[in-house]
């Protein structure tokens, strides 16, 4: 019965003036990428991005498209000729289909819109006729409520056909991936950083990821976990390139030469330096972390100040003002939570000092680092970096 999916775009795409075309182009490309094997056609039609199913399975198409950033919602539509009798018959089918998934009685309303002014009936009249027809053939399963209906049948009269739908399937909103440029996400195996990466993607960023491992102190399963998180993120954006940086020697040197209460601060300062280098190499214009203000010792303002000092590339912290419960609920929704809570150790937890400094001073951190040959350590870490590409299909 359904031939087409119509999309409603994120509000910001709609108001982006001249850039709108570019945003829509990027969106359509991203949509095509997820449905390319289904034989559907994605195109602009009547001021909207539409998907013609061409016989493809509706549920499968919806399940793939409903995660594409930039889409606010999707509706499957049934099409008819511009003939009021045909419209009424199709309306009944669409409503009956919607009723199958609901407990009755359901409150109901018809909302008609006439884009084609040559159609001989005005919108309110179309609504009335269609409503009356549907009500008289659904055996009391519907109750009219024009203010707050549970079920709304939308009838759109276009140039050469009418569109009918009852269903609004929410999408993730945001902006199409690729429209904001590229960022480098510091991806640990925890709950927060994957969520931060997801939120950056949702604002249109292409996300590459960097992970610091301390193999063999951290296990292969810990690495697997990070790979899995990168894979899940790639499922949202299409692709994630993950750079696994050899951090073992750096950890060892810090432990040998630096005061214990400053080890986390110094470790983070070196992570930032390495991420900064890689970002330049990979043409990323910002770093993204999962830091949230005050969450742990290394995320106090003093700590962020002291750690941030080694770089002047912008550091985006999408979670900075969020509570852990909010972050966890996003993690569950985007499918990273179950993987994040697996118990495998992280390079930070292994070397965790008993009393990390919660208000580390910049000058003390600088002095504590003096014994390290940071340049050589960074060069070695980058030389031993291994890169993997994850795509939606992998
Ligand atoms: P997460 O849940 O993301 O691990 P967290 O609450 O454990 O965060 P921290 O361990 O203090 O917080 O890490 C703060 C941020 O630093 C992380 O969100 C992440 O962006 C980055 N980070 C920490 N450890 C690593 C690592 N091993 N590799 C890459 N980035 C890391
Ligand atoms: Mg962590």
Automatic annotation (TrEMBL):
One GO term of the biological process aspect: thiazole biosynthetic process
Catalytic activity: [ThiI sulfur-carrier protein]-S-sulfanyl-L-cysteine + a uridine in tRNA + 2 reduced [2Fe-2S]-[ferredoxin] + ATP + H(+) = [ThiI sulfur-carrier protein]-L-cysteine + a 4-thiouridine in tRNA + 2 oxidized [2Fe-2S]-[ferredoxin] + AMP + diphosphate; [ThiS sulfur-carrier protein]-C-terminal Gly-Gly-AMP + S-sulfanyl-L-cysteinyl-[cysteine desulfurase] + AH2 = [ThiS sulfur-carrier protein]-C-terminal-Gly-aminoethanethioate + L-cysteinyl-[cysteine desulfurase] + A + AMP + 2 H(+)
InterPro entries attached to this UniProt entry: Rossmann-like_a/b/a_fold (IPR014729), ThiI_AANH (IPR020536), ThiI_fer (IPR054173), ThiI_N (IPR049961), THUMP_dom (IPR004114), THUMP_ThiI (IPR049962), tRNA_STrfase (IPR003720), tRNA_sulfurtransferase_ThiI (IPR050102)
Broadest EC class assigned to this enzyme: transferase
Gene Ontology annotations for the cellular component aspect, listed alphabetically: cytosol
Localization, UniProt: Cytoplasm
Domain THUMP residue range list: 59-168
Identification of the protein by name: Probable tRNA sulfurtransferase
Free-text function comment from the UniProt entry: Catalyzes the ATP-dependent transfer of a sulfur to tRNA to produce 4-thiouridine in position 8 of tRNAs, which functions as a near-UV photosensor. Also catalyzes the transfer of sulfur to the sulfur carrier protein ThiS, forming ThiS-thiocarboxylate. This is a step in the synthesis of thiazole, in the thiamine biosynthesis pathway. The sulfur is donated as persulfide by IscS.
Alphabetical keyword list: ATP-binding, Cytoplasm, Nucleotide-binding, RNA-binding, Thiamine biosynthesis, Transferase, tRNA-binding
PROSITE patterns: THUMP
CDD domains: PPase_ThiI (cd01712), THUMP_ThiI (cd11716)
Main localization (coarse): cytoplasm
Sequence positions that bind ATP: 186-187, 211-212, 268, 290, 299
GO molecular function: ATP binding; CCA tRNA nucleotidyltransferase activity; tRNA binding; tRNA-uracil-4 sulfurtransferase activity
Family: Belongs to the ThiI family.
SUPFAM superfamilies: Adenine nucleotide alpha hydrolases-like, THUMP domain-like
EC identifiers of the protein: 2.8.1.4
């Amino acid at each position: 019965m359904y031939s087409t999916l119509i999309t409603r775009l994120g509000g910001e795409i709609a108001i982006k003036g001249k850039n709108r075309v570019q945003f829509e182009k990027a969106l359509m490309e991203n949509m095509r990428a997820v449905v390319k094997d289904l034989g559907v056609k994605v195109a602009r039609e009547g001021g909207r991005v539409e998907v013609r199913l061409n016989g493809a399975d509706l549920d499968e198409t919806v399940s793939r498209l409903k995660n594409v950033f930039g889409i606010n919602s999707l509706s499957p539509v049934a099409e008819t000729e511009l003939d009021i009798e045909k419209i009424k018959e199709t309306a009944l089918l669409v409503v009956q289909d919607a009723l199958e998934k609901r407990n009755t009685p359901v409150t109901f309303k018809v909302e008609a819109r006439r884009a084609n002014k040559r159609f001989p009936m005005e919108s309110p009249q179309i609504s009335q006729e269609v409503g009356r027809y549907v009500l008289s053939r659904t055996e009391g399963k519907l109750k009219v409520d024009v203010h707050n209906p549970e079920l709304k049948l939308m009838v759109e009269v276009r140039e050469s056909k009418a569109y009918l739908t009852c269903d609004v399937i929410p999408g993730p909103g945001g902006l199409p991936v690729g429209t904001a440029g590229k960022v480098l996400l510091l991806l640990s195996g925890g709950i927060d950083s994957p969520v931060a990466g997801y939120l950056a993607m949702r604002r249109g960023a292409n996300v590459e990821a960097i992970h610091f491992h301390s193999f063999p102190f951290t296990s292969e399963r810990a690495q697997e976990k990070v790979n899995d998180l990168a894979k899940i993120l790639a499922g949202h954006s299409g692709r994630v390139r993950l750079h696994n940086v050899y951090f073992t020697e750096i950890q060892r040197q810090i432990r040998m030469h630096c005061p214990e209460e400053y080890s986390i601060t110094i470790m983070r300062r070196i992570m930032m330096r390495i991420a900064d280098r890689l970002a330049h190499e990979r043409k990323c214009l910002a770093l993204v972390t999962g830091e949230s203000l005050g969450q742990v010792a290394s995320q106090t303002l003093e700590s962020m100040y002291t750690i941030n000092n080694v770089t002047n590339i912008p550091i985006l912290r999408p979670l900075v003002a969020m509570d852990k419960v909010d972050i966890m609920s996003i993690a569950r929704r985007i499918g990273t939570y179950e993987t994040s809570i697996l118990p495998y150790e992280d390079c930070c937890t292994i070397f965790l000092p008993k009393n990390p400094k919660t208000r580390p001073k910049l000058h003390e951190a600088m002095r504590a680092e003096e014994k390290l040959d940071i340049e050589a350590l960074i060069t070695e870490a980058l030389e031993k970096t291994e890169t993997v590409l994850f795509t939606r299909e992998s």
